[in-house]
Amino acid sequence: MSVSSNKNGAEGRKPSITYWAKDKIVCPVCKKPFAQEVMQKGGGRMIAGPLTDELHRVFEPSKKYGRIFPMIYEVGCCPNCHTAFYWKDFTDIRDEDTFTRLFDDRDRREAAVETLFPYHSLTENRSLYDGAAMYYSALLCYEKVDIAYAPTFKRGQICLRLAWMCRDLDLLCPGHNFEYVAQVFYRKALFFYQQTLINETGRIESIEPVSNFGPDVDKNYGYDGVIYISGLLEYKYGQKQNKELRLKKLEEFKKSIARIFGLGKSSKEKPGPLLELAKNLYDKIGKELSSNNILIDD
User: Fold this and answer.
1) DSSP state of 62
2) How far apart are CA 257 and CA 238, in angstroms?
3) Is 13 helix (H, G, I), strand (E, B) or coil?
4) CA 138 → CA 143, 238, 253, distances in Å?
5) Looking at residue 15, what is its pLDDT?
6) Residue range 62-81: mean pLDDT, rounded
7) So what's the pLDDT on residue 87?
8) Backbone region of residue 9 per phi and psi (left: phi > 0; alpha: psi in -120 to 50; beta: other values)
9) CA 202 to CA 195: how far, in whole Å?
10) How many helices (H) and strands (E) does the chain have?
11) Is the pLDDT reported for residue 133 higher than 70?
């Protein structure tokens, strides 16, 4: 792993953040085994910081381990064919047509990831940069996954996490356009989150296969969280060229948030942080609508 000073001031081994699982993952696409890197828990590795309005948990750096990004360990990527999934999907997805599409697409996928994240590693202890590359590969893989496995939502969640990672990369390595890339992923997340709602309500693609809606790794905010994130992304990152369309969409999300969260009234059934954030979003949307002389009867 990396190094740190020991008691005598000499360089020694830094306490490990991850370990390599004893049992290897067999890639369902190329049938080759590869090692799974797993984040160790406890020992002061994860120091929870603030929760952002995007339901992103910021973890504080520790003197012992430095800054840790737990979400980068949630996906795996086969070094042979560059198939990347959330770890659970390496065994849950069993559609041979999906595997064929992914195998045929491997060269294009590898080239696309290398263009955006050149010189990343798939075999060493991953950095934030490596993790972002794996997430991008996963985004491209879920394009080819059958709708029985809820790929639309997973693409939305992956895009949102990629936006967070790219913003962190911009702080760590300014001047490399990572903030611009983050904005692209935010807009993609907006599309996929809203398409998830359309597909679910229209019975086109079920979200039943999703076990954790996140959006981050520390808490599952469920389907209410999907509705909240959809409205938040529209408010923060939605298009502003067509004012009439923007106000119409905000009006729809204000009504949805009102129905789900009871117009901001307290509810023991709703997660506390989500309820408070939904209230704030409801008020912000309402302020923009009222400033444009649009009144809504909730």
Assistant:
1) B
2) 17
3) strand
4) 9, 24, 29
5) 76
6) 95
7) 98
8) left
9) 10
10) 9, 10
11) yes
